[in-house]
Amino acid sequence: VVVIGAGFGGIATVRALRDAPLEVTLVDQNNYHLFQPLLYQVGTALLDPSEIAYPVRAIVRRLRNCDFLLGRVISIDLDQHTLHTTAGDLPYDRLVVAAGAVTDSFGKPGVLTHAFGLKNLGDAITLRNHLLTTVEHAAATKDPTERRRLLTVAVAGGGATGVECAGAVCELVGLVLRRDFPHLDLSAFSVLLIEAGSSVLTQFAPSLQRHAIRALERKGIKLRFGAKVDDVTEQGVVLQGGEHIPAATVIWAVGVRGSDAGGLLAPQRARLGRIPVDAGMRIPDHPEVFVIGDLAAATVDGKPLPMLGAVAQQQGAHVAATITAEAGAGSPPPPFRYHDRGTMATIGRNAAVAQIGPIRAWGFPGWVIWLAVHLVLLISFRNRVVVLINWARDYLFYDRPVRLITAPTPHAGDNGSPHGDPAHPD
Amino acid sequence: VVVIGAGFGGIATVRALRDAPLEVTLVDQNNYHLFQPLLYQVGTALLDPSEIAYPVRAIVRRLRNCDFLLGRVISIDLDQHTLHTTAGDLPYDRLVVAAGAVTDSFGKPGVLTHAFGLKNLGDAITLRNHLLTTVEHAAATKDPTERRRLLTVAVAGGGATGVECAGAVCELVGLVLRRDFPHLDLSAFSVLLIEAGSSVLTQFAPSLQRHAIRALERKGIKLRFGAKVDDVTEQGVVLQGGEHIPAATVIWAVGVRGSDAGGLLAPQRARLGRIPVDAGMRIPDHPEVFVIGDLAAATVDGKPLPMLGAVAQQQGAHVAATITAEAGAGSPPPPFRYHDRGTMATIGRNAAVAQIGPIRAWGFPGWVIWLAVHLVLLISFRNRVVVLINWARDYLFYDRPVRLITAPTPHAGDNGSPHGDPAHPD
């Protein structure tokens, strides 16, 4: 069994296969599992990369029947049942593709060059370095117009990522950097949330959407509804209709699409670049290939499943049970059903919205629920303790301990590749 | 007063000036103060960058009369008393240059491209990514010769950096990665320490040198005395005499020289690229310019002072007292004397050598002294606690929590510059 991707789906799959009489290989282009829901906290210098990333080998070494391969998938030979990777070829009997999603620039070249995505650890380090550097520039410049541009952060997209990012940037500057830069005029600072629709967090109940909007406004975030980004330039963001907003930082949280690994499987993709699968997460004509997680266009009762870690985890466990049964070691699982364990989003200190079954929570209670759930979810004990220390410090002292601007020194060797595949830069 | 460099010397200077009736500006190309003595632990994935780096602004904001400028020095106009930086011009009445030292490649181009220095945070992240990646490659390759090359680490230089690095690499692979890679043949792993002289740690007493050599040998590190590196290639290291040693990782700890900022001050540099200064740390003909720390070729009783953080700190305090006195707020300090507080070096778990006045310690007692001293020295409380947690975990569980291969995503903006100057890439 070969599993592509060490995200929530891939890790759930190999864990659920631990007692099956099978040889499992997990392939990923990074050597760590990333706790994606907190990525925006790395991007805003609240958490350190090592607090939300965990070495894959530290997970895999506890599983007797699983090995790890650091490499990027080049192609998938569905007829020969072979995976070609930058670290060699892997034949498979069963293939589970859990390659996840990537930021979708919607074909706008300015987004690729000038906006900041927030989908992998490199993105988050890049955004952190940029945010901290622009504030330094703002402190050094004598031009008030340029200072205002440097201190304007535009967030495109009013989904969970956009809302959480806007709230966190606001707090980084307003609560922490305000003390680091006592001479800086922070009235020039503004955060703008640009959303094409008429509300934020549309996956939540309308009452929670209204709470979220009020919480954003209380933080001083300017909301622009019904506004679509036409392009992003070095100077800022251009809205449809021609309006230009000067902003040194544009965070692109508009949407994601299935990873390119999907293109290797099926030339015909569904909406958002996802791969159509049947109720057992199999692709057409190849019952030995499963697709799960963000990359899978799975539907339950005709409705597409959301792109959530919980979906990927449940699909991974289901597929692992199917594979185990096919190996003659267990009975086949009942048809897949998605158990919605709830959704939540935080809008900074003391404010979050949570929707868990019939429960609706917001404000401080919502934030406490959010905090508790995320602490429990974090994968390793060490991570949990250190994250708790950092959050506690942030909460008590309004301080971010990790506001460093760091980058590797360039080197002729194979390291420091900025392409997300340290093993084989292209 | 303008101070260049936020290392041990520069920070000691601005702190000692805190009550003087002066306006102080601290300039550095990075936004953090780095605890250099533990840099090798970041390079070997034991500590996280944020554990040995601390935001300069978090230090400076406690000083009423000090501001910080993120920028790189372009030139120094000694006649006009003006510093030109990438973030603007700064006139000065007194200038303190504490720009430190950089890795010296001794004009060997192969060292620049293929060897790994260990002098700044970018170097350490680069080395960490490289070490972890080569072990992944070694696990994936089927060629035993290539595996042996990938698992060979050559350390050039038997000073403190070289010895500490060799010990830490040895432990990373032998104790930690051994568990992550259960199928990897670690008999192919070797660490080689190449030293031109006939001993290691020559600044220590001969008895401690012998203890250090024994500790290195017990860890399985191969010592090559009387061997000089002629060049470094992609394949490994070439010794003088023509011997070629295949090694995927060559760590260059042979020597350092004064930072290039020194070249802006004096075309004529002393040994190791240091700037000649008088007993008051002033340069010839410009009594308003002071040079301290690694960059200063200061002598006491005719002997040059070592390149140590303690020297820089004491010189910074002395220069600050001189400047305060010249500003009419205090009496001039007595002539500078260096108080040697001792030297120590660690050779991994349970082994270190320490020489503090008449005290000589080695083995486990030496290591306990080393640990205690470094915990106290670390600049911030938070750092101290987190570092202690990581060390404790490493010691108890033989585990390195931070073995992630990370790099920023490239971006058209001003961030992610790999040149050590995030503000203004060149």
Task: Compile the SSE list and pairings.
Two copies of one chain form a homodimer.
Chain A: E1 2-4, H1 8-16, E2 24-28, E3 32-34, H2 39-43, H3 49-52, E4 53-55, H4 56-60, E5 66-70, E6 73-77, E7 82-85, E8 88-91, E9 95-97, E10 101-103, H5 109-114, H6 121-140, H7 144-150, E11 152-156, H8 160-180, E12 190-195, H9 206-218, E13 222-225, E14 229-232, E15 236-239, E16 244-246, E17 249-252, E18 256-258, E19 275-276, E20 282-283, E21 286-291, E22 296-297, E23 299-300, E24 303-304, H10 309-326, E25 343-346, E26 352-356, E27 359-361, H11 363-377, H12 381-397
Parallel strand pairs in A: 1-2, 1-9, 2-5, 9-21, 11-12, 11-17, 12-13, 19-22
Antiparallel strand pairs in A: 3-4, 6-7, 7-8, 10-18, 14-15, 15-16, 20-21, 23-24, 25-26, 26-27
Helix pairs in contact in A: 1-10, 6-7
A few lines on this structure:
The structure is a homodimer. With about 425 residues, chain A is of the alpha/beta class.
Could you describe the 3D structure shown?
Two copies of one chain form a homodimer. With 426 residues, chain A is an alpha/beta fold. Chain A has twelve helices and 27 strands. The relative contact order of chain A is 0.16.
Q: How many helical stretches of chain A?
A: 12
Question: What is the arithmetic mean of pLDDT of chain A?
Answer: 86
Spatial arrangement of strands, main beta sheet of chain A = 5-2-1-9-21-20
Structural class of chain A: alpha/beta
The percent of residues in helical segments of chain A reads: 25-40%
**Uncertain stretches of chain A:** 414-426
Largest interface: A-B, 71 and 70 residues
Oligomeric assembly = homodimer
Using the alpha-carbon principal axes, give the shape of chain A.
Answer: globular
Rg of Cα set of chain A: 22 Å
Strand content of chain A: 15-25%
Q: How would you characterize the largest beta sheet of chain A?
A: 6 strands, mixed
First-to-last CA distance of chain A:
28 Å
- The count of strands of chain A amounts to 27
